[in-house]
């Protein structure tokens, strides 16, 4: 029984690692996709290219809405600043 439990545990770990590997391989956060993003794009268009951001910070004042968004995938980090849902600046950092 103990050997069977160890085998099942090892199979579960292998399956989890495989799924995580597939998810990482399917990530939209790539230098190639970064090149498709340009100033003036809508936030929706940027999300279509890069996927939902890993993290965001939002604020608004007197009818002007701002958002700082970050996408991360391994050694790639993309940052973007939106004003009223329009891309103002963006940068790519590869470590």
Short structural summary:
The protein is 38% helix and 36% strand. With 95 residues, it is α+β, with helices and mostly antiparallel strands.
Cα-atom radius of gyration: 19 Å
Helix residue percentage: 25-40%
CATH second-level architecture of the domain at 29-94: 2-Layer Sandwich
Average pLDDT over all residues: 85
- Percent strand equals 35-45%
The end-to-end distance, rounded to whole angstroms, is 46 Å
The major pleated sheet works out as: 4 strands, antiparallel
CATH topology of the domain at 29-94: Beta-lactamase Inhibitory Protein, Chain:B, domain 1
Structural classification: alpha+beta
The top-level CATH class of the domain at 29-94 is: Alpha Beta
Query: Per the principal axes of the C-alpha atoms, what is the gross shape?
Result: elongated
Plain-language structure description:
Strands 1-2-3-4 form a four-stranded antiparallel β-sheet, covered by helices on one side. Helix content is 38%, strand content 36%. The chain has helices spanning 2-25, 31-34, 43-50; strands at 55-61, 64-73, 76-83, 86-94. It has a domain at 29-94: Beta-lactamase Inhibitory Protein, Chain:B, domain 1 (2-Layer Sandwich), CATH 3.30.1450.10. By secondary structure, the chain is of the alpha+beta class.
């Amino acid at each position: 029984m103990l050997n069977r439990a160890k085998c099942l545990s090892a199979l579960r770990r292998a399956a989890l690692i495989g799924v995580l590997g597939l998810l990482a391989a399917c990530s939209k956060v790539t230098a190639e996709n970064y090149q498709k993003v340009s100033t003036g794009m809508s936030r929706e268009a940027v999300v279509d290219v890069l996927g939902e951001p890993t993290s965001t910070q939002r604020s608004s004042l007197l009818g002007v809405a701002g958002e700082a968004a970050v996408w991360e995938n391994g050694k790639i980090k993309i940052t973007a600043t939106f004003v009223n849902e329009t891309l103002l600046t963006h940068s790519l950092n590869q470590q």
